[in-house]
Structure formats: structure tokens, C-alpha cells
């Protein structure tokens, strides 16, 4: 499949989807707290997307998935499955990965939520992963390469003593959740696909406290670190503009 270059009308629709998804995370800032179950978070997001935003939770039903988000706690790298029995504890860190479709176009984003008694080691991993994502985003412009993005993320993560998960990557996005290209979070600057204005894709590094190796649990979804050490992830949907980039899922607290 070729990389889909979005025209001005399609970009406007993607902006709307991205803004609505940012609104979901704004709502969650006051809702996510210790003691709540990940299934309660899932159900709240489902209701908010459908009835407040008049949009569609795009993850529900995709590849047979039965929920509207992934909830990945502590050593869970990605694809954590919401459950009523899974309640957030005071030392947890949790990634909530959510997708939303409006008017035929999909936005994808994830955010780390850090509970009140999370230790400094966990907080440092979360911050470094966020900074690494932004180091990757800032490389985006016409003429840059996908390798520039991956190299920037890998350089920062490894300089802090962490490892980059290589089995999972960012992806093109638009009318489909997963389009070309694949966006690796490691690599060599100056290599790979050359970016062009109108491309849209996610940047979503998963950074491990320990070794990069992962395994999938028996449920067929939940991916964990093999050494049981912490993992963190952040994600945004990005547009390549004429002069650089636009973060389509930018949240209020990230606006300068």
C-alpha cells in the first residue's frame, strides 16, 4: 500500500478528529484516579466519544478487539485489556491509548497517567519517554526521513539508560487506522522514507526501563516486558506541513 498524501479537505477533517480526541484526554484528567477500574475508564470513554462528541470509538471491533481503549499498567508495554478487576493503585503508571473516528477519519493518541505515590524511577521513565517522543516529532518536515525520527528517539532513550521496544511502531493513519508508512522508533538518521507535505502518521515510542524484549500474554493482546520492569509510552498523530509539522492530537496542557 502506498503512503496516502492528504489533501486540504482531508487534513481539515483529520484536524477535527484530532481535536476531539484531545478533548477525550482532557475529560480523563479529572476522571482517572486511584481505585478506579480500567473497565470503568473504558466505559466512560465509550460514552463520551459516542454521546458527547458524536463520534465513533475506532478501536472497538478492530481485529476482534472488544474495547475502546488499551490500558497498559506498569510492566505492560502496550495493548493492555480493560477489566473490572484491574483497579489503579497509588504507585501505578498507566498508558491509555485511544482512537476516535469522525467523518471518516481516525485520530490516535496515548497518554501516561501517573498515580500519586509513583516512585521517582517511574516518573523519570515517563518523562524521558515523553521527551523522546517530542525529539522525534521535532524532526518532522518535508525532506527529512523516517530514520531521522527513529534516531532522535533512540538517542535520547539510550542516553538515559533505557531501551526502545522494536516489535511495535508508529504508522500512517487517515481513513484507515493503519496505513503506510511504518514509523520505527529507532534507526539511523538520513535513512528511510523521505517525508512529504500532507503525510499523516503516528509517533508512539515504547521505552523500557530494562531490556527491550517483550512477550504477549495468553489473552493474545497484552504485551509485557520479559524482565517485568516498567515500560512507558506516549503517542500523537502528526501532519507533515509545508515547513515542518502539526500535532493533530495536541492537548491543552501542551499548547505553548
TrEMBL record:
- Give the reaction(s) catalysed: Release of N-terminal amino acids, preferentially methionine, from peptides and arylamides
| PROSITE patterns in alphabetical order | MAP_1
Instruction: Fetch the InterPro entries from UniProt.
Output: Creatinase/aminopeptidase-like, Pept_M24, Pept_M24_MAP, Pept_M24A_MAP1
**Cofactor info, note text:** Binds 2 divalent metal cations per subunit. Has a high-affinity and a low affinity metal-binding site. The true nature of the physiological cofactor is under debate. The enzyme is active with cobalt, zinc, manganese or divalent iron ions. Most likely, methionine aminopeptidases function as mononuclear Fe(2+)-metalloproteases under physiological conditions, and the catalytically relevant metal-binding site has been assigned to the histidine-containing high-affinity site.
UniProt superkingdom = Bacteria
Per its UniProt record, the required cofactor names are: Co(2+); Zn(2+); Mn(2+); Fe(2+)
Provide the residue positions that the database annotates as binding substrate: 79, 178
Recorded GO MF terms = initiator methionyl aminopeptidase activity
Going by the record, the broad EC class of this enzyme is hydrolase
Q: Residues of the signal sequence?
A: none
What are the record keywords, sorted? Answer: Aminopeptidase, Hydrolase, Metal-binding, Protease
Question: Which residues does the record give as a divalent metal cation 1 binding sites?
Answer: 97, 108, 235
Pfam families listed in its UniProt record: Peptidase_M24
Per the UniProt entry, the Enzyme Commission number(s) are 3.4.11.18
Q: Boundaries of each Peptidase M24 domain copy?
A: 12-242
For the ligand (a divalent metal cation 2), the binding residues are: 108, 171, 204, 235
Please state which protein family the record places this protein in.
Belongs to the peptidase M24A family. Methionine aminopeptidase type 1 subfamily.
Q: What does this protein do?
A: Removes the N-terminal methionine from nascent proteins. The N-terminal methionine is often cleaved when the second residue in the primary sequence is small and uncharged (Met-Ala-, Cys, Gly, Pro, Ser, Thr, or Val). Requires deformylation of the N(alpha)-formylated initiator methionine before it can be hydrolyzed.
The record's section on HAMAP family has: MetAP_1
Q: How does it assemble?
A: Monomer.
- Family matches, as NCBIfam families: met_pdase_I
The name this protein goes by in its record:
Methionine aminopeptidase
Specify the species. Answer: Marinomonas colpomeniae
Amino acid at each position: 500500500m502506498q503512503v496516502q498524501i492528504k489533501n486540504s479537505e482531508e487534513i481539515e477533517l483529520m484536524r477535527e478528529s484530532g481535536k476531539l480526541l484531545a478533548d477525550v484526554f482532557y475529560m480523563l484528567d479529572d476522571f482517572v484516579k486511584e481505585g478506579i477500574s480500567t473497565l470503568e475508564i473504558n466505559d466512560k470513554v465509550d460514552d463520551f466519544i459516542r454521546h458527547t462528541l458524536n463520534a465513533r470509538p475506532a478501536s472497538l471491533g478492530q481485529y476482534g478487539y472488544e474495547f475502546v481503549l488499551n490500558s497498559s499498567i506498569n510492566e505492560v508495554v502496550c495493548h493492555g485489556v480493560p477489566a473490572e478487576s484491574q483497579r489503579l493503585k497509588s504507585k501505578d503508571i498507566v498508558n491509555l491509548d485511544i482512537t476516535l473516528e469522525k467523518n471518516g477519519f481516525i485520530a490516535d493518541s496515548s497518554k501516561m497517567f501517573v498515580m500519586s505515590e509513583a516512585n521517582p524511577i517511574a516518573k523519570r521513565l515517563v518523562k524521558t519517554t515523553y521527551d523522546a517522543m517530542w525529539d522525534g516529532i521535532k524532526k518532522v518536515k518535508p525532506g527529512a526521513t523516517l530514520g531521522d525520527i527513529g534516531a532522535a528517539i533512540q538517542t535520547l532513550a539510550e542516553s538515559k539508560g533505557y531501551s526502545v521496544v522494536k516489535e511495535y511502531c508508529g504508522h500512517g493513519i487517515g481513513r484507515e487506522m493503519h496505513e503506510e508508512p511504518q514509523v520505527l522508533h529507532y534507526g539511523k538518521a538520513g535513512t528511510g522514507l523521505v517525508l512529504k507535505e500532507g503525510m499523516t502518521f503516528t509517533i508512539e515510542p515504547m521505552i523500557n526501563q530494562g531490556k527491550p524484549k517483550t512477550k504477549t500474554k495468553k489473552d493474545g493482546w497484552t504485551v509485557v516486558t520479559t524482565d517485568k520492569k516498567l515500560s512507558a509510552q506516549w503517542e500523537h498523530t502528526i501532519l507533515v506541513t509545508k515547513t515542518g509539522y502539526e500535532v493533530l492530537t495536541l492537548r491543552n496542557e501542551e499548547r505553548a
